[in-house]
Design brief:
about 60 residues, mainly alpha, 2 helices, about 0% strand
């Protein structure tokens, strides 16, 4: 469901970007870039926190 929603959002954004004038185009690209960066950042933070949580457990065993 999440993938389908993401694909729909991407398609909608791409369509909007194609029709939009260049200034709007750049603004949308910046928004998309921010969203992607935030999303990737959140994944990395999740991985790091999981790793830090696991490390003490591994040391104890």
């Amino acid at each position: 469901t999440l993938d389908k929603t993401r694909m729909t959002t991407t398609t909608t954004m791409t369509t909007t970007m194609t029709r939009a004038p260049s200034a709007e185009n750049r603004r949308l690209r910046a928004i998309v870039a921010d969203v992607v960066a935030a999303f990737c950042g959140r994944i990395n933070v999740d991985c790091i926190s999981e790793h830090q949580l696991l490390s003490p457990t591994l040391k104890l065993s």
